[in-house]
Write a structure and sequence with these properties.
Layout (H helix, E strand, L loop, with lengths): L15 E6 L5 E6 L1 H7 L3 H4 L4 H4 L2 H17 L3 E9 L2 E13 L5 E10 L1 H46 L9 H25 L9 E5 H12 L6 E4 L2 E6 H18 L6 E9 L3 E8 L14 H4 L7 H10 L3 E5 L7 E8 L1 E4 L3 E3 L2
Helix pairs in contact: 5-6, 7-8
Amino acid sequence: MTLPDFSMLDAVQLPVFVLTKDAHGQIVYAFVNAVGYRDLALQAEDVIGKTAAELFRGSAGTQGYQRHVDIWAAGVPATYQQLASLSYGSAWIETRISPCFDANGTLTHMVGVSRDVTRERALENMQPTHETIVNEIRDYVAMTAHDLRSPMANVRMLADALRDGFVDMGDGKLEMIQMIEDVSDKVLGQISQILSKTLDPALKQVAEQFDFSALCEDILVTLDPGQSHAVRIMPALVEADMRLFHLSLRNLLDNAIKHGGRAKMSLDMSVAPAADGRIQLTVADNGCGFADPSLAFLEKERDVTKNGLGLAAVRKMVRERGGTLFVNSPAGGPGASVTVDLPGKVHVGAACIRVA
């Protein structure tokens, strides 16, 4: 069988080779272009008529020849990657082999084109490392902001305690208390903004398991340090993006306490499974509720709170991450409930009640 003249392939600036079957039925090299010989650091007499197993020693040669056999048998183009030893060192080579047929439909030879993809593979391997570093930085910022929130909330609480019953003597101490309150309010608001920024929608959300009851109690240490409110928590093991879940829960509780209109309220925190691998987090209270739930996000005093995000900001944050938020006021009764729908799983337990 006479093959075409492949000398024109010497002009191609990638390694190109031609495979055919010899008299013994083995798939051997029939042609290699100039770039191919350069990368192999071999001459024609070292390559032509040899199989990949003979040309490349070890598993690289054995695997390469088996791929040639498989592609010949299938009669369809195929692409594979393989680590090879070349004149300039070891490299990952991606090879595309295309079978060629004569007028009778008989496979006569196969043409292969190779390219070095070592750098591309290195960049692909670096991507998870980059994401890991970004996530670690985000976690550190979030943890630091969270750790700062409790002592700053305590400063705010102490300022309130100082103001209670304080007699202004005109010596500037009342103004100093006001300054402490203003600074702590501003810092607490900035901490909440920092935590919301750590939830970049472009970053992959990582699901992790955590104790819902423990998380609620941890947040209440800051928001209700004096345990003024009666609290009911539904124990559950939750699997979700903890950062988003934590920030949503904290700000829903913050809004309920600040806008409930009662010195002592009943707070109910629950989480329940929903359809399509989602969960619903609900914070309910017996406060003043919403005059019109449909206008809840338009009430300016609820858009931004001193210590956290208002409902409008929470809804925006949740929506950007594939969730929803809706509010409700029970008909004929006081109170309100706010529910956030998020991706996740939940395993529900028995309720836990803390009575003020």
